[in-house]
Structure formats: structure tokens, C-alpha cells
Amino acid sequence: MKLWDSFEFSDQGTMDETSPFDNFFKLTRTQRLYGFGICFVLGFVISILATILLFTGPLSGFAVLYTIGNIISLLSTGFLVGFKKQIKTMFAPVRWFASVVFLGALVLTLVVAFVLQNGVLCIILCIIQWMALFWYCASYIPYGR
């Protein structure tokens, strides 16, 4: 892919070909794109299934599935930038706020679902999760935020 090879990426966030963690798996760029796509779609599907469970099952089941779906979606970006670099750059100046909001919303969603059992607050936190995940992922795209 000639076009793909011509891209250069900054330290703020995309392909990290030299990461020791990535070399361990030895994934090609095409495999990384497939990994990204599969994880992102899988996370989305799990979140949709969780939404169905919201109306038919327990609140705790919804919260757990929705949170797992968002975590899988977050892991999808690891295929693009490299998992080690993703962990390092989660708290870079351009995305630390989105990372903290996202991780906080993950924890708070589960706490509200299991301890408080407040459905409205749980749904609000899930919306915050989704918006923070979107904001976080957009931070990897130049001028994406």
C-alpha cells in the first residue's frame, strides 16, 4: 500500500512501528487495521446488545455489558497506535482530560449500577462514557477534536 507507507506519524499518536510490544506480536499494518475494525465493531455490537438488555434484564447486566463494549472499543485504537504507546499517550496533554473522564465514567457506571441501582444515573453515565470515548478516539486524528 504505497499511500499508507507515505504517511509519517507524530509522537502524539499513530503508528508506532518500533514499540517492543508491537514487535512481540509482529502485526502488519493490514492486520492492525483488521484488528482495529473487528474490535471497534465488536465493542459497538456488545454495547447495542447491552442497550437491549437495559429494557429486558437487570441494570447491572446492562452496565457490565455496556462497559465491556466500550473497553473493547478503546482497545481497538491500540491496534492503530500500538498498545504500549496507547498506554503512554493516554495521559498526553491533548487527551488526558478525555482519558480521565472516560475511565471515571467506566468506574462510576459500575458503581451506580451495583451499589446505587439508579437506572437514570446509569444511563447518563453511559452517555458520558460514549462521548468521552469518541472524544478520546478523535484525539488521535489531527484536528479531530
TrEMBL record:
Keywords: Golgi apparatus, Membrane, Protein transport, Transmembrane, Transmembrane helix, Transport. Its main location: Golgi. Nonessential protein required for the fusion of transport vesicles derived from the endocytic pathway with the Golgi complex. It is found in: Golgi apparatus membrane; Membrane. The keyword Transmembrane helix applies. The chain crosses the membrane at residues 33-55, 61-82, 94-116, 122-143. The keyword Aminoacyl-tRNA synthetase does not apply. Pfam families: Got1. One of its GO terms (cellular component) is Golgi membrane. GO terms for biological process: protein transport; vesicle-mediated transport. PANTHER family: VESICLE TRANSPORT PROTEIN, VESICLE TRANSPORT PROTEIN-RELATED. It is a multi-pass membrane protein. Belongs to the SFT2 family. InterPro entries: Vesicle_transpt_Got1/SFT2, Vesicle_transpt_SFT2. This is Protein transport protein SFT2.
